[in-house]
Every structure is written in structure tokens, then in C-alpha cells.
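Pasting as-is:
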Amino acid sequence: MDRLILFRHGKAERDSDSGDDFDRRLADRGVIESAAMAERLADLGLIPDLVLVSPSSRTRETWAAAASAFPKAASRVERALYHAEESTVREMAEAAGETSNTVMVVGHNPGLQDLTIRLLAEGNAPQTLIARAHGAFPPSAASVFLFDAAGRPSYDGLFFPKD
């Protein structure tokens, strides 16, 4: 894997009809912001080869809103990404990266935010950037990292929907 894009799901409704967190759908704002973030990433050339998507309604809907910006990307739903911890997200991305240059993960906090902070720290990013990621990783946020041949990360972008 040369590049990893962590993409948090869009703004979701507070509750689902079933009462189950897994079934919470995107709010209208979430659809709009997810599509806009995907367009922004694509415009910058940050285009995944493979997208790993948590199976929850809101993450699948985020990918549905974003997919048209990445028409050549393959995608697959991964059950283990539902509320996955940072270590699980990283392991799954690294495994997918064995056959894909750019991997995107569409998932949840706190796992994506925690992994963003960890990769920023490992890549010796400025403390101001680490503090910004620590302060918030809102719905439809994305973080992007490059990896060298030894697997060491370096910061390639931190994008919030309101920026």
C-alpha cells in the first residue's frame, strides 16, 4: 500500500427505525457532505483502488454517495470494520494494501480518529496538526497518508467537510 485514505461516514440520523445503531442512516446533510468530500479527494488525485466499507447503513450510504467520484475503485463490505479499533482498521488496510496501491476505509470513530492520530505521530507530523486531529474528526472527514517501502507513514492530507 502506497497510500491510505481514512474516510469517516457522513452525518447520520440520531436513531434508526429499528432502534439499532447499526441501522442508522445518513441524514440529508451526510449524503451531501460525503459526496462533496469524495469529489474533493478525487479533484486532488486522491483516488482509491480498493475501498473497504463497514457494513452499517450509514457507512454503506456514505460509500454510495461517494462512489461516483471514484468510478474505477473496487469495494467490499467488511464486517470487522463495524466500530473497529484502530489496530483492526490498520491491519485490514495493510492486508488489502498487499494487492492495492491506494486503500480507502469508510468507517467509524473512534477507530478512524485514533488511527489518524497514531499515523500522524508515527510520521512526525507537526504537533498543531496532531492537536487538530485530536480535537475533532467529524462526520465526512478524511485523512490521507503515504507509506514508504518500509511501511512508515507520512501525512498527505487532513480534510474536514467545513474547510
